[in-house]
Specification:
The chain is mostly helical. Strands 1-2 form a two-stranded antiparallel ribbon. It is globular and about 55 Å long.
């Protein structure tokens, strides 16, 4: 019994996910249909990419609330680049999306990381300012209008499905899901199996001790923010590809979903602990709640209330775990 209680307390997010799936499955049998599960996997991807990047920053003891604006800016820029290639093929479209994400992510991440690591700007203030800058630039560049008229190939990564059958002629597995699984797996390996990953945990646990151990704290912090912004930009270009246009208002408030997902997955807001793999359970919880409430035709306004409560509970649980350890 003690072992069971311990496991439950350490894996609350998994228990929550199972309970939610059961409740929504009872509330609407469509929830467990193949079509809905595939839609659910696709819906998780944008948040999964963002949350993965935020895991790095939160483990470092920081926060990045600029990811939503950064994602929108990357999506808009990728759309404009896409207009330059009216005859693009699938390979070209993927290259355009990934390169656009890398370019925007490196610039924004470097600015965030440099100000936080080298100029000692408070992460919350720095990234709040960057949120307004990136979101504002997205509106300035587009004039507040969506960038449309893109070739069909542009939508491959975000909207297409692979492995077509007679029963499902449009395809079974969403391309965005395969892309997300590959990227998230690489980020998980980088954090959990490399020297850089160990340095991230060390800096988040205690910067002074990390510095005395020979770790370049500023460089690790800067790199962590670059990774976070790149992941946000990958989410942004995937979102643009999914709807086949660049929206300056895309990914609005997605930073809250990503932060909640990371914290629910066990990433401590005080830094030093967390993992990409467990954060994905938090991503799944958010996706299941939104999907289940949609199926039950619950107002989107109430969905915002529920997500807000979840974020609050996640923070309370995080602080309770910290106090328990202390």
């Amino acid at each position: 019994m003690e072992k069971t209680k311990k496991w439950v307390s350490e894996n609350v997010v998994i228990v929550t996910l199972v309970v939610l799936c059961i409740l929504f499955g009872i509330g609407n049998p469509v929830f467990f249909s193949v079509k809905n599960i595939l839609n659910l996997l696709s819906q998780m991807c944008i948040n999964a990419l963002m949350a993965t990047g935020l895991v790095y920053v939160i483990i470092l003891g920081g926060i990045d609330i600029s990811v939503g604006g950064t994602a929108a800016l990357a999506g808009v820029i990728s759309a404009y680049v896409g207009l330059m290639f009216p005859n693009m093929n699938i390979f070209t479209s993927i290259i355009i999306l990934v390169v656009s994400a890398l370019a925007v992510g490196i610039v924004v991440g470097f600015l965030n990381g440099f100000m936080i690591a080298y100029l000692n700007v408070v992460p919350m203030i720095c990234t709040l300012a960057m949120l307004n800058i990136t979101r504002g630039l997205a509106y300035v560049i587009t004039g507040g209008q969506p960038v449309y008229g893109l070739p069909d190939a542009y939508a491959f990564l975000g909207a297409s499905r692979l492995i077509k059958t007679e029963a499902m002629p449009n395809g079974i597995i969403p391309a965005i899901t395969i892309f997300t699984v590959i990227v998230v797996a690489l980020m998980h390996i980088l954090l959990s199996k490399t020297v850089f990953g160990r340095h991230v945990y060390a800096v988040g646990s205690n910067k002074s001790v990390a510095h005395l151990s020979g770790i370049n704290v500023k460089k690790v912090t800067l790199t962590g923010h670059v990774i976070c912004s790149i992941m946000a930009c990958l989410a942004g270009v995937c979102a643009a590809s999914k709807i086949q246009n660049g929206q300056p208002g895309a990914c609005d408030a997605y930073e809250m979903f990503a932060i909640a997902s990371a914290v629910m997955g066990g990433t401590s807001l005080v830094g030093g602990s967390g993992s990409v793999g467990r954060a994905m359970f938090g991503v799944a919880v958010i996706a299941v709640i939104k999907n289940g409430m949609d199926l039950m035709q619950i107002s989107s306004y109430w969905q915002k209330v529920v997500i807000g409560v979840i974020i609050l509970l996640a923070v309370i649980m995080d602080m309770a775990q910290k106090n328990k350890k202390d």
